[in-house]
Design brief:
alpha/beta; Beta-carbonic Anhydrase, Chain A
C-alpha cells in the first residue's frame, strides 16, 4: 500500500476480496440485525496500533473508538453507547509506545492547527503529572507519559462509570501496545498497566481477573 492512490485502492480491494472469500455467508448472518461486542476499546488513531494485535477475529468483538492519545473526555458519547447500550463488560484503554500525540503534548504545539490544539489540550493534565528523574532519557520520559495518560483516562472513566465497576458489571483495563519492546517482553506484546485505577505492579499480577493465567503469562504481560 503506499505510493499512489491507484495502488492503494487496488491493495484495499484485493484485501477485501480475500476477506470475503475467507468468510462464509453464515459469518455475516449474525451481524445483520445487531452487534454484541465484549469490549469497548478506546485507542489511539496511530496507524501502527491495530486490533490485529489480539490475534483474533475482532468483528463483533470490539466496539472501537479512536482518537489521538486514546482520550475518553472527547468521546464519552461513543463510550456510553458501548457501556450502556451494548453492555460490554470491559472498557479497555489502549495506549502505545512512541505515541505522537503524547510527544506533541509534551512540547510547544502552539503552531498546530486549532483543532489539533483543541485535542492536545486534553492531554495537558496527565502530562503535567509525569515524574521525571535526573537519570531519565527521552525514551524513559516518553513511556512514563504514555503510562500516566492511560492512568488518567481510566481515572476519568471511573468518575463516570464507578457504580458499574462497584457492581461488578464493568472492568476498566489499561494496556500499552509495546511494538518497540520497551518493556523487554517482546515486540508487539500488550502490557497490562492498570485495572480499575490500580497500577501497582504486584497487586495487578495478583488480581482475581488473571487467575486463569499461568505464571509465565503473568510475567510476560505485566511490567516487571
Amino acid at each position: 500500500m503506499k505510493n499512489t492512490a491507484k495502488d492503494t485502492i487496488k491493495y484495499l480491494i484485493n484485501g477485501n476480496n480475500k476477506y470475503v472469500n475467507e468468510h462464509e455467508p453464515e459469518f455475516f448472518e449474525k451481524l445483520k440485525d445487531a452487534q454484541s461486542p465484549s469490549v469497548t476499546l478506546v485507542t489511539c488513531s496511530d496507524s501502527r496500533v491495530q486490533t490485529s494485535i489480539f490475534g483474533i477475529e475482532t468483528t463483533d468483538e470490539l466496539f472501537v473508538i479512536r482518537n489521538i492519545g486514546n482520550q475518553v473526555l472527547s468521546t464519552f458519547g461513543s463510550i456510553d453507547y458501548g457501556i450502556y447500550y451494548l453492555k460490554t463488560p470491559i472498557l479497555l484503554i489502549l495506549g502505545h509506545t512512541r505515541c505522537g500525540a503524547i510527544k506533541a503534548g509534551m512540547s510547544n504545539y502552539a503552531g498546530e492547527s486549532l483543532d489539533i490544539i483543541r485535542e492536545l489540550n486534553h492531554l495537558a493534565i496527565p502530562l503535567k503529572m509525569v515524574e521525571i528523574n535526573k537519570n531519565d532519557n527521552d525514551e524513559n520520559i516518553w513511556i512514563k507519559a504514555v503510562e500516566q495518560n492511560v492512568d488518567y483516562q481510566i481515572k476519568l472513566a471511573l468518575s463516570k462509570y464507578s457504580e458499574l465497576v462497584e457492581q461488578g458489571k464493568l472492568t476498566i483495563i489499561g494496556m500499552i501496545d509495546d511494538f518497540l519492546n520497551i518493556y523487554e517482553k517482546g515486540e508487539g506484546r500488550v502490557i497490562i498497566s492498570n485495572i480499575n485505577g490500580e497500577n501497582n505492579k504486584e497487586k495487578l499480577k495478583n488480581c482475581q481477573l488473571f487467575e486463569n493465567l499461568s505464571d509465565d503469562l503473568k510475567n510476560k504481560y505485566f511490567i516487571s
